[in-house]
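Figure S4 source data
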Amino acid sequence: MIAILTIQQKDSLIGQTYDGVCYFNPIEDVNSNFVISDIEYYYCLGLWYLDELQLDLQFITTLSLTEYQPKITTPFI
């Protein structure tokens, strides 16, 4: 499962860490949605539950989840 982001939400996560070490890595899926991984999502959900999630990241707890469909890329030949 992955969490779907708006473009503004994606932009706000660029350069931010979710655990003080690992950076958010929003990527684009086959449907042109920007998404974060289930690891990033559930880590933030756990921090929110413990009342330790930064205020500017609280929107993550309201994101919709969906199955990941990778973007198809053409290999270089």
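Figure S5 source data
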Amino acid sequence: MAVLKIFPDKDATLYSLFPNMNTGLDEIVEATETVFAYSDPNPQTSRFLIQFANEDLASAISLIPQSLFNSGSTTSTGSWNAKLQCFIATATGLAVTTSINCFPVAQTWDMGTGRYLDEPISTDGCSWIWAGYSGSTIWSAPVGATSSFTSSVPAGGGVWYTGSQYTSSVTFSYRTNKDINLDVTNTVKAWTTSSGTIPTNKLPNYGFLLKQNLEFVDNKNYQPELKYFSVDTNTIYPPALQISWNDFVFNTGSSTQTILNTLPATITLAQNPGTFYSESINRFRINARPEYPIQLWQTESVYLNNYYLPTASYYAIKDLETNEYIVDFDLTYTKLSADSTSSYFDMYMNFLQPERYYTILIQSTINGSTIVFNDQYYFKVING
């Protein structure tokens, strides 16, 4: 199965309270509701923009076979999908439920080089009022797009398309994980073609706008703040666009190897040199056998007999230091394939943060039991 990630080309937050302030290089992007005075609430909001470069998007999409791109559903259970991921830095003041909406941006914008509350504030990029530097181009909705603001703040806050096929949303309850993992497949498909080129007769790629569902709420008790790491973060949690597609093949050809159906089992990883450049694409092969193989009359050791893992077998990737899943087990997109040699899966290293160690987990259902194998399958990604 194939999973890869691309990282944003630019991002920024738009603040209604600071209508000319640019934050293009800030380490945080946020969707926040704020009331400053209980006697005169004057609610304020913030929204954030994220855009991925056309070149990166086209390169990723071109890896998906055209038949998969064009066929079937484009939802999370279809032949391929794209998910926008943002990782929470701070969450405060949340209601019982808080919702974030995501839309495709309808106007080009400049990132700028500002940070939150620079002194003096930076005005060389997008802000609440301006899509470019202050005094250049205001936010203006083209045909088919919209914007949203209140009479108590200047007009602005971005413009976006609202078609139901392009709108995504997530609702957080008070105790759930606040990371964003939104299915944006339809928007990405509208930006691209199966050959990886950027069409002129579909939506232009100006990125995504994320905002809270309820804004400008005149209520001192409603002030949810959701702050996420930006592309300029100094952590391992920048936003990402994860693209996955189903390339599962189980074709063993003329191989005489059988499918493993005995526990306990020994699983090892082949073709793992331990270090990869970011540009690498590696095929990891799985060596599998019973821990106590049946003794046979043959001219070589029974411990050398390799087995296929059952079709209900999957891989996952964890960051070795934080123990967090980078790619979780997925019944569609991380399924192990098989050819005449062994079970295997392919991995694109460019979506992993360089100069870090990772571990591979293998999950398989064998003889009615689901087992996760984690036998120090480590590797490191380095800068090329």
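Helices lie at 54-61, 66-70, 185-191. Residues 72-76 have pLDDT under 50 and may be disordered.
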